User: Fold this.
Amino acid sequence: MSGNTIGKLFSVTSFGESHGPAIGCIVDGCPPGLELAAGDLQHDLDRRKPGTSRHTTQRREADEVEILSGVFEGKTTGTPIGLIIRNTDQRSKDYSGIMDRFRPGHADYTYNQKYGFRDYRGGGRSSARETAMRVAAGGIAKKYLRERYGIRIRGYLAQLGPIKAEKLDWDQVEKNPFFCPDADKVAELESYMDALRKEGNSIGARINVAASGMPAGLGEPIFDRLDAELAHALMSIHAVKGVELGAGFHCVEQKGTEHRDEMTPDGFLTNQAGGVLGGISSGQDLLASIALKPTSSLRLPGKTVNRDGDPVEVVTEGRHDPCVGIRATPIAEAMVAIVVMDHVLRHRGQNMDVDSGLTDLGSNC
Amino acid sequence: MSGNTIGKLFSVTSFGESHGPAIGCIVDGCPPGLELAAGDLQHDLDRRKPGTSRHTTQRREADEVEILSGVFEGKTTGTPIGLIIRNTDQRSKDYSGIMDRFRPGHADYTYNQKYGFRDYRGGGRSSARETAMRVAAGGIAKKYLRERYGIRIRGYLAQLGPIKAEKLDWDQVEKNPFFCPDADKVAELESYMDALRKEGNSIGARINVAASGMPAGLGEPIFDRLDAELAHALMSIHAVKGVELGAGFHCVEQKGTEHRDEMTPDGFLTNQAGGVLGGISSGQDLLASIALKPTSSLRLPGKTVNRDGDPVEVVTEGRHDPCVGIRATPIAEAMVAIVVMDHVLRHRGQNMDVDSGLTDLGSNC
Amino acid sequence: MSGNTIGKLFSVTSFGESHGPAIGCIVDGCPPGLELAAGDLQHDLDRRKPGTSRHTTQRREADEVEILSGVFEGKTTGTPIGLIIRNTDQRSKDYSGIMDRFRPGHADYTYNQKYGFRDYRGGGRSSARETAMRVAAGGIAKKYLRERYGIRIRGYLAQLGPIKAEKLDWDQVEKNPFFCPDADKVAELESYMDALRKEGNSIGARINVAASGMPAGLGEPIFDRLDAELAHALMSIHAVKGVELGAGFHCVEQKGTEHRDEMTPDGFLTNQAGGVLGGISSGQDLLASIALKPTSSLRLPGKTVNRDGDPVEVVTEGRHDPCVGIRATPIAEAMVAIVVMDHVLRHRGQNMDVDSGLTDLGSNC
Amino acid sequence: MSGNTIGKLFSVTSFGESHGPAIGCIVDGCPPGLELAAGDLQHDLDRRKPGTSRHTTQRREADEVEILSGVFEGKTTGTPIGLIIRNTDQRSKDYSGIMDRFRPGHADYTYNQKYGFRDYRGGGRSSARETAMRVAAGGIAKKYLRERYGIRIRGYLAQLGPIKAEKLDWDQVEKNPFFCPDADKVAELESYMDALRKEGNSIGARINVAASGMPAGLGEPIFDRLDAELAHALMSIHAVKGVELGAGFHCVEQKGTEHRDEMTPDGFLTNQAGGVLGGISSGQDLLASIALKPTSSLRLPGKTVNRDGDPVEVVTEGRHDPCVGIRATPIAEAMVAIVVMDHVLRHRGQNMDVDSGLTDLGSNC
Assistant:
């Protein structure tokens, strides 16, 4: 495949640009019999969509997804599910200032070098607008995993610039526009973002995702390990510069006795591994964390070159997120869901007869 | 594919267990005409092989690779290259103590739960012994990239437990058993490792890899981004728990004006991006960093369960690396080489006629 | 992938049912810079579409394709091309008679056994309606191959029931509703089809496809041979039961001296091979032939069972093609184009530096 | 993948040339727990190996396969199975006559044009020697399918030149060197082949393969149909120029009432479909047929060109099969087994929860 497909048995292929007529995707491999309607996907789309608070881009998109195939009488048929969202609020004229110059830190330059030219309107294919389809596709995976296996995939903002969530209260996550699980930090986030917007700058963020209710056994070593495919999927999200599982980079300074998760008949005692050992799920919660860089589309001028190679300054007008991390929580959840779903199907194919002789220990931790 | 293949046009499929008769791989898609002999691969294999200093496992393997196909009259033919290394120094009896109990932090448990049973000798397929084939395969990619494009891929130990390299002197990297680029830290590393070995414990590490001479344009958005596939490849290495590109997790606290790499006609001014923008190489050096956890096979007893689910203690005899990160440098280089090579071929296929009209700026930084 | 994608570097993923809201596909991997508009694809869509003569189904579909992405300022950008065709003329009530019984010779039964239930309206996903998207996707490949390489892909009806074309006059192919290259047979075809329609029966056909202007060197042995992937692509067309290259089944009775195509400095003397030797194109014309079975949806009653397993009779009302082979010519061309296109890109990726030292002989024959 | 891998969940990747040190393959995705030893694969390897009668090449190869991984204590572990066969009887000097000229009808020319040069010894990678590994890999699939599902895959010689088998007596197939199911034709085959060998010519053949005990539901429409992937796999065998399922090319002259297989509660009444409807297995016997061209390596001189493009004559000394079809029966069985195996695993992954509510009708016919 040429780069726009992810997954082997449960696969998602996407298309669409920021300012084209529509974005869409094909979800292939969803098992038959899952109850599914567009409404089931809308909740996560609404969590991701722009313009829901003053802290994200003011582009207004309803992001209403249409299911074009693969569902009959309210149930998936096992055939590919075509999804589409029409683009409605495009202001292409905003982009005339950057059509022949490259924003530093943006894909403008690399698209030009790879393809010879680029759709400069809203970043074209490099726009995070494309992630709406990931959220829709991931919504199907989430629903199947929850209903069939009790697997639950949830994310939250762990850090935004200098502000770290210090409590993990899942009930708080959906109660503020930041997906912050620590209610005590919300006011601080509000004022930080207001100041940043005024300044015309942007900021990075860290998002954590957890999957609970995981069965043991998912993941195909050597190359298609569960953690390796999660890293692939999460790093494929716009602006992500780092991915961790479990202890992540902390393990550099850990000793073996600290890092290894001891086991008892009642379950694992800790979860440094983040739910994956040897590339295979252990049944513990899957714990992933990602770093998102600050947006490169800024009102503050920066040095760059134009298509002729001359030195110029660039200022981005248009409408942009000062922190792309804010809207990334549902996207990261979706990518985890897609990978886990694919591995559920792959694992069943090869291992359906296996009896390990041992009860799954993972759910105890 | 079922998990043991990586790459689309340049692909590597591997097989083999720690204590089976041999390990091997098939490298498919190497262009014809590359001069290649087993000796070309031996240097990197020797860098990775066990027993070269007192700080790694004392297993003795010559790790001599045999080329079984794909080379004729000293040149690659374009057909698959079969590679094999016979295992010679196996002491399976060392493993009788763990055949029916699971080392905490090890793949013992997850292999059991996935497959119903496992080859417990030396970790079987989950052993890092398999990475010898990655090094051999990566050696082919490295040679092609260097000779055809001048791309050079090199790694080093950036941190081991609390000890950080503070200088990057490439000339030092091969002069000590740690791949440490800071000569001033070698004595400290020696004594730290000696103490650790005495204690019976293990430690984590961080490895950095850089690719210089990169052309702009490699990588296929959306899902097959260069950074996403690097994350996949690097996270697929045993014990890796985190992957970063460029600024990595530092970007969480960066502002847009700090992170964006400004451009001039003479090149980029900084390299926070690590050489990838929008999933496509910018021509700047590719900079990746990985975290490796401490080995879970320890002489210090740990709590676990046996195959009957009873609580037991486990102690690992056998021969193990107290820091798997030490030997990981050539492995990480190999994985980067495989991914870059695959993307060179893929890019040429789709974009060979492209003229971007702009000179590559990347090589200036 | 889960079955709805074909191709590795130039890939097509399709979705859609006969009576759903729309059918569509994503074409991934088209090189940037190709001039493309919906109108470029319409000619082949019109050649395939239903209702253009009394000899095909009377369903009326405009089959107007919309390009949703991947084209900017009239040129492909190198990003995925989303294509969609809305379904308009659906008469789902026609299918109530077969909703709980299985047409013999149809996919009704196998879809039920595979998925547990099925979208019975117009055959759902098993309907040849899906092939409209193949024609659209193939149109992109055809245009690129023709403009960039001078490769031309054309098909014709070689036989319909007992009536064989005895002349190959390419100028005649588009002048009759059968794609018959032998003008002397058209009247016979007309009356045969009129009688068949009156009878309520259906008939098989043979379609030939030729690609001229082929370069030598396309195809990846061992498994991804050009002929093997052509066989895959052509057998994936609804109703196809056989595929031949060159001499095809005639070779069973040929001696080596008859079959081998001798070569001279002016080219090959014959083309028994059909343009492929060892899985790689020889530069001669690619010659493929397929057999299409008679439609199984008949007004003549047949024995079958219903969903309860009881014996019943089935009669298909609805609107069906009495010879699916008639509309199959553009579909077969499209599939050949998709495979050749994919192999052009794959070949370039791996072999762009190759100089064989010998001029291509193929074009002389 | 670059051409030497087939299958998605059960995949086979092969390497090796006719006159290199060894041929081999990696079988990835075999479920754990299958009892397996090299001896299990030897029977089919012996059926394929050269030199077993005077009617095949007199090259002597023991074709003893070694299992290098993936089996522990006599059972598959779920990890990749590495297989290798050392080449022993190579006479490279026989090939000096063709090193700089191209045998007409052979891959010599196309390999030269694709790769720039070629391993001319025994045809290098284009030699049918490579098919030994397919037989070994297929043997694993056959064993799993037979033991786990009762699926049995068997082939026979249906025609050799003008001589057709008129009876299908499975008990006869293994009792003569031709795999001919009609004992009355064996003497005729013997004398025909003796005359052909004396003449220095070669002849084509037709091989049929049947799979019995098939479950309904295997195959993934649209592109990964069971019949399409069978066509791919069978056309990938050296010398194959045509593939048919069920009625095959006979369907061109069939009416719908003849071709459709009517159904009763006791099963299908006929099997024109060859066991596949809509790309999905019906549970009836799978019936495939292939045409193999006559060998192009002949002692009779033929016109060709050399690497300089000059006209020359070519005569092939060396040792060759006068009818490659004779040894093709186990190869064709192996390819069918690999495809069916892959689809069993894929089907289980996506559809394991499906209850169609209807007993499988296929086994009754």
About this structure: Residues 5-350 of chain C form a domain with the Chorismate synthase, AroC fold fold (CATH 3.60.150.10). Helices of chain C lie at 38-48, 108-115, 131-149, 170-173, 186-199, 226-235, 256-259, 328-351. Chain C is about 25% helix and 20% strand. The longest strand of chain C covers residues 152-160.
